[in-house]
Design brief:
By secondary structure, the chain is an all-alpha fold. The protein has one domain. It contains 10 helices and no strands. The radius of gyration is 19 Å and the shape is globular. The two termini are 20 Å apart.
Length: 228
């Protein structure tokens, strides 16, 4: 029971912040381009109750990634809908990758303190151990969310970006996949080699690039939380 509580405590803050920042970033950029829908509906907030999707939240603790309720964007309010939606869609993954960078800096900062005399104190170890786990998981989940959402299938952000850069006729064809997009994504991830051959190597490479010699802390966090 104590281990389960520890796992939830380590995962909760990084996971919630990663998911909420992703959605708030969409709404913020949309407002900058002329669409106030998210603000008017009270979604430009870090209050988790405004964003949480029950199934998406449970998925975080089971699979290591999840989703929130999408922030509503009315493309008709955007000044240049096709172009502006590209930036609105990019905002979420960019926010996650930026947060991954911050998490990596925290890991490197802790690594620096570990090498100093303060790193030997009992109090420091008690504080730094869970912080390492949280920063390691934050780095992982933000890279995962950033990469996963760039899959070029609607309703993921990558699908929105793709429909923004394609000619209108081809964009309309891609847009027709949206009602089936979630099913297609599940099929790709769980029933093909897309995860093992494409997504996992990208995630692993970015973790190594950002974490550097602190990458073992990310691996330790994932092993503790998910046992692999």
């Amino acid at each position: 029971m104590e281990t389960i509580v520890s796992k939830i405590a380590i995962m909760l803050v990084p996971a919630l912040f990663a998911i909420m920042l992703h959605e708030v970033s969409h709404g913020y950029v949309a407002e900058r381009f002329g669409d106030p829908t998210a603000r008017l509906l009270g979604r430009l907030t870090f209050n988790p109750l405004k964003h949480l999707d029950p199934i998406g939240t449970i998925a975080v603790f089971i699979f290591g990634f999840g989703w929130a309720r999408p922030v509503p964007v009315n493309a008709g309010n955007l000044r240049r809908p096709r172009r502006d939606m590209i930036w609105v869609a990019l905002a979420g993954p960019i926010a996650n990758l930026s947060l991954a960078l911050v998490s990596a800096l925290i890991l490197h900062g802790i690594g620096f303190l570990d090498e100093m005399s303060i790193g030997q104190s009992h109090l420091y170890v008690q504080i730094s151990t869970p912080l390492k786990m949280m920063a390691g998981f934050s780095l992982y989940i933000n890279i995962l969310l950033g990469v996963f959402n760039l899959i070029p299938l609607p309703p993921l952000d990558g699908g929105r970006i793709l429909t923004g850069v394609l000619p209108e006729k081809q964009a309309a064809l891609v847009g027709r996949l949206e009602p089936f997009g979630f099913v297609l994504i599940l099929l790709l991830v769980f029933f093909t080699d897309v995860w093992s051959l494409v997504l996992a190597p990208i995630v692993h490479t970015l973790v190594l690039l950002l974490a550097g010699d602190q990458a073992y802390l990310v691996e330790r966090a994932i092993q503790f939380l998910f046992g692999h």
